[in-house]
């Protein structure tokens, strides 16, 4: 199939970028979106140009590195997949495809389609963990956890930290990401001792990083490759309110 | 341990804190909308009922003012906080936007809350000037005292809505208000964390229901007046 | 075996019965008191299960840690992609499991080419891993009673695998990552993401630092420390197409090798039986389907070559060859990976492969869906089925999956002693990057176990054995050795950028990969390996003449990153083939066509094993082949003979 790409090119963090047009000819339908870019890059290189930089690694939808906004939608229109799992058979011959980086003030562009998502790491640093010093754990079956709670924690823990939620949000909010981690850890008895501190610290860090706030439009859950539900955001709100109240009164 | 005061400040400074303020004040305003509409609907019971209801309200000035101040607090709390949030959100998007914009599931109402809100604000100012402060009309004059010596709210309503532009603006504003509510009502519950997997469809349906009831209830009055079904 | 003299450095295997070696070793190991620990600086390269858990745990203990990874976040290390699970000798199922049995299964699964003492320790600490991970909030699968669930895995007859749906690696890695982030916040770990190690710095024979390149700014700099830990994963991408992440590379390990570290058993590469087959030459990587699918899926090919083009549904039951069930009745579809892979290759070589190019076999869930219902199958494998459907456009609920083996894991790695220290003092190697625990073949759900065992439990206990003898901070990054290594790294970058050819880096990588897969893949032979060893230098020569690396070194330059890695893969591939050529036996992941059972062997006529199975030659090859980078680049072989005291050397049989 033959396509036209409109790709964001930007030389470096402080450069001005712009959209450039590239033909993508003779693309096999079975190729993945990233393989299509590989083919385009291969041609750019042999033609003497500089290839399009984009983040990618596992190419099986789990590492969370790939991060393109395709025709305005992070990871493309198909639901529940990452860009690396998007296959060209989902496009039509002759299509023009817009490829842009994940955009948000908290995700500055490093080059072309590569953005800096270290803000997510700093949010986890603020409290996205259970302090369990190695060697101090009790037997794994000492505390039974209801299956429903464990399953729900898993649904939240499935987050791959790709940042699509932020990129899709009209407000560049990181609430889905934060809520998923708060939910994951808070759903276990082991996560309880730090629950209050965790939610306050993570939300504070989220705000400091310059993310927006949630206006309940749910674009995040629509583009989430792991189908994380915005219900967790509701739980985060409640947890935050409760923790704030306890902090104020306590 | 931070002091209570600093906790409150940091709560309001946080994005979620502000969201909670918007949600709580929003629900307060919805409650007012219902009360206001219930009072207005007494117009169908005739002049005596609605005028005596208004007189009854005014017979308790302390309570009335307390309610008015509460309402005012909700109103300004809602608006000021929202404006702060919108500012934060615009900044968070960054300087360079998408060249190709797309929306997957965000409703149009949810994306235009600030605009529907601003128009509603304009309407509220007009509405207060029109009926509460009676600016540019004679609703406070002697001709609007009924036989029992009460303020003739009934006559005021009929006269007010008999002027087509006023009714039209009212109906358009109500439409926008309900547009606002169709997203806002359920949104309050989301923000307050009061939703479950099973309750969520009900809450969303309730949001549309509330919007519809308020629209139909309120708009029925100018329509009835203009149609001549309510007159004196 | 007295005539067998190992000429590797001492493996430092503790004395005494195997059950007490580890506790004895810990008892006799050196300690560093808590106030002194913060004087020591430790470099950890890699932030996957092994590196992440090591960095976090060492920081908890009080060491100052610098951790480096090439990914933009430590959370993206390739451990994340492991699907199936992690083994532990908990015996929660009461089905007769024990530390010994896990140890035995691992040694047997590894085709008797691993070091007993290391494997026993691995089995021993496996139980602690589960405790640790649950304490961190890893959402393992649970039963309705709230207790942990287990599943069975290839090569084992007990249920000892702990899992979190098909995302066990992800969940374990997030546990380690979160522990790491906690330590970063606490100031114990300084994290360097998007940073690639270009060289190891050896000062007075000791590993004292590394040279790195900041992948965003391009800046090349040095970091000195009291010791260096490499946890940089495997070298599967030498084959270009593998299930490894695109960024996985051998650079750190190979650079260390060039600086003196022995590379052990590079020819032991694992070919995973259940991957999605290749569909075209644009393909950039292969996708693994969890081995857990073999619990319920039945593997088959048509009995008749004439049927391969027909839709699966049109091939009657009687015309299907469920070859694993036929050849290995007691393990059936759960036969170990090397056996399952090779059987698939045999079927395809026999002209009975299905799908494009005849390179595929069916993995069929029709029976399981009929027996358990679609809902149960969906609950078990829903996400895997979905992934398969996304990639192939075929629905595995209605037609059998097509699978084919792909390079997945590499058992070989840098040689380490019982302390996980290489022959270069101070250089420690963890996880897939070392060679130590899996012998010639790794059992399913053992990679995660090893990475975490090394990082959480082994290295924290063994590192003081080295550090205690070192004066903290004795070497600084301004030592001449650093300057020299930095200069070399800069020269290499300049050289890569300056070739000025016309071919892309990927085109060389593909060429190399195809060659290595063809000649040193699932089956190897003398002639093929010699041919590969002739061709690899040709590829190297044209690489350094014709490659085009655009852009500059002072920017984010992905082609430059790839070029450095591919240059090392080319050199490394030679060592890989050299090792495969020298090992004139078949064992585990190393199958030499010349060494297989035939009908003349008594093991076959007695029915103990089948024709075509791997034939080991224990008398001549029961050693670890540790290669030294000799003068002029010529590899020098060192042998560490393996002693089997607690497991009887036997021909593997999974019948």
Question: How are the secondary structure elements laid out?
Answer:
The complex is a heterotrimer of chains A (250), B (232) and C (655).
Chain A: E1 3-9, E2 18-24, H1 33-46, E3 68-70, E4 73-74, E5 96-101, E6 109-111, E7 114-115, H2 118-127, H3 147-157, H4 164-168, H5 175-186, H6 195-208, H7 219-223, H8 231-249
Parallel strand pairs in A: 1-5
Antiparallel strand pairs in A: 1-2, 3-4, 3-5, 6-7
Helix pairs in contact in A: 2-6, 3-5, 5-6, 5-8, 6-8
Chain B: H1 4-13, H2 15-41, H3 47-58, H4 61-93, H5 108-111, H6 113-132, H7 153-162, H8 164-192, H9 199-227
Helix pairs in contact in B: 1-2, 2-4, 2-8, 2-9, 6-8, 7-9, 8-9
Chain C: H1 18-28, H2 34-37, E1 41-45, H3 49-61, E2 64-68, E3 86-87, H4 99-109, H5 116-136, E4 151-152, E5 159-162, H6 168-186, E6 189-192, E7 195-203, E8 206-214, E9 220-224, E10 227-230, H7 251-258, E11 263-264, E12 269-275, E13 298-302, E14 320-321, H8 323-327, H9 337-349, E15 361-364, H10 366-372, H11 374-392, E16 401-410, E17 413-414, E18 427-429, H12 447-467, H13 480-498, H14 505-520, H15 526-546, H16 558-582, H17 602-605, H18 618-621, E19 623-629, E20 635-641
What does this structure look like?
The complex is a heterotrimer of chains A (250), B (232) and C (655). Chain A has 250 residues and is α+β, with helices and mostly antiparallel strands. Chain A folds into two domains: 3-111, Beta-grasp domain (Ubiquitin-like (UB roll), Roll); 118-249, Fumarate Reductase Iron-sulfur Protein, Chain B, domain 2. Chain A is built from eight helices and seven strands. In chain A, α3 (147-157) runs antiparallel to α5 and α6 packs across α8 (231-249). The radius of gyration of chain A is 20 Å and the shape is elongated. The mean pLDDT of chain A is 97. Chain B has 232 residues and is an all-alpha fold. Helices cover 75% and strands 0% of the residues of chain B. Chain B is built from nine helices and no strands. The longest helix of chain B has 33 residues, at 61-93. Among the domains of chain C are: 272-408, Flavocytochrome C3, Chain A, domain 1, CATH 3.90.700.10; 480-621, Up-down Bundle (Methane Monooxygenase Hydroxylase, Chain G, domain 1). Helices cover 37% and strands 15% of the residues of chain C. Chain C contains 18 helices and 20 strands. In chain C, strands 6-2-1-10-18 form a five-stranded parallel β-sheet. In chain C, α4 crosses α5 (116-136). The two termini of chain C are 30 Å apart. Classes of the chains: A alpha+beta (250), B mainly alpha (232), C alpha+beta (655). Chains in contact: A-B, A-C.
